[in-house]
Amino acid sequence: MNCGRIVQRLVVWFGRNARDLPWRRTRDPYAIWVSEVMLQQTQVKTVLPYWGRWMRELPGIAAVAKAKPEKLHKLWEGLGYYTRVRNLQRAARMLVDHHGGAFPEKFAAVLALPGIGRYTAGAICSIAFNQPKPILDGNVIRVLTRLFGIAGNPRQKQTNARLWRLAEQLVIESGKARKFNQALMELGALICTPRQPQCGICPVAKHCVAYQEDRVGELPSVGRRRAAVARRFAAFVAQEGGRYLVRERPPGVVNAHLWEFPNLELTRGNGGLRKAARRLLGIQAGSLDPFCTIKHSITRYRITLDAFRVAGTQISRIRPGVGQWVARSRLRQLAFASAHKKILQRLPVSR
Asked: What integer is the mean pLDDT of 238-244?
């Protein structure tokens, strides 16, 4: 296979077809770093407004390092995978303490920062500094497995190592790391998509083994997806005057440090809604009023969250320590887990 022709065609194609994304208009490694972290497991269209707000509120590394965690979580609210934002601050503080607040150029120093793996370090170093470092994310894996007809599971060690070697070979040969790596990602995002790839307009289709052998739909060979698991939760919306009962999720759990309404998972073994209300709040379920139902997904879980209003004399019977009574106006300043934010948005506007 003529790798030189592949590289050349991709770079030319990218120059003509690249999306005009705001983080592509800068060589600032901080701005590129923020974009790459936000883009982990998140679509570009979702990230665009978040990146803009973040850069306005926190225009540099020092601003992130000294920001209050509450502000960081609020800026990140809705993006999910909140460990990313906490690692961003940890890394920013390391940069302030050990690099004078400047972003390092050496790959090893970038890789040593919290929350930055081999892919993210390669993306930052190639895009910001034009260093010939390989990248391998979902889009690039899809492009390379199809282009070179690689049938092995890319998650397996041997196949993954082969893909990294290919990515490295190509970016070195390109001599234009900044453009080439972005071209690989862009091809996977726009043309070589998981379903219904547009092979007819692909700039490297005639070099693509999968296309020539009619195997595009078979690659990459990631195996069967794990079956979705249904889970059901009950949340309790208690109001006292202009205040609502909410709680902050503890460290070390999913959505740590985000806020939520008191809630409990309903399973066959825990007795359903009646026992959940008594166990969590110390109240009887008979006076609960259905408020709303939220459906959402986290990884392979399909979650139904039923919210109930706690009304009347039950308010005074809620046991102490369940949460905090917070004014409605203050709730808007807190970062809520996405499903609970949807409950919050359904509450009546305080006058």
From this structure: 93
Q: Quick one: 13 and 74 in the same domain?
A: yes
d(CA 139, CA 192): 8
Q: Say if strands 301-310 and 324-327 run parallel, antiparallel, or are unpaired.
A: unpaired
pLDDT score recorded for residue 10: 97
For residue 285, pLDDT over 80 is answered with: no
Q: Which of 311, 326, 135, 327 is nearest to 248 (CA)?
A: 326
327 has which bridge partners? Answer: 243
Q: What is the pLDDT of residues 286-319, one digit of tens each?
A: 778 999 999 999 888 999 999 999 988 889 899 9
Residues 240, 206 share a domain: no
Residue 349 identity (one-letter amino acid): V
Find the domain containing 214 and state its range: 3-218
Count of residues making up the chain? 351
Residue 75, CB half-sphere, CA atoms under 13 Å: how many?
Answer: 25
Q: Is residue 36 among the annotated active site residues?
A: yes
Number of domains in the chain: 2
Residues 6+ apart with CB under 8 A from 235: 260, 261, 262, 263, 305, 306, 307, 308, 340, 343
User: Could you give the CA distance from residue 179 to residue 169 in angstroms, rounded to a whole number?
Assistant: 15
Name the phi and psi angles at 309, rounded to 5.
Answer: -80, 140
Give pTM, 2 decimals. Answer: 0.93
Please tell me the predicted confidence (pLDDT) of residue 1: 66
Residue tagged active-site, from 36, 77, 186, 260: 36
Helix, strand, or coil here: 267?
coil
Amino acid letter, 197: P
- Buried b / exposed e across 165-192, counting CB within 10 Å, b at 16+? ebbbebbeebebbbbbbbbbbbbbbbbb
Report, in angstroms and rounded to the nearest whole number, the Rg of the chain calculated over CA atoms. 24
Same domain, 76 and 103: yes
Beta strands in 241-317 (DSSP E): 243-248, 259-260, 263-266, 289-298, 301-310
Asked if residues 310 and 205 have their Cβ atoms less than 8 Å apart, the reply is no
Distance between CA atoms of residues 166 and 177, nearest Å: 14
Residue ending a domain, choose from 218, 239, 256 = 218
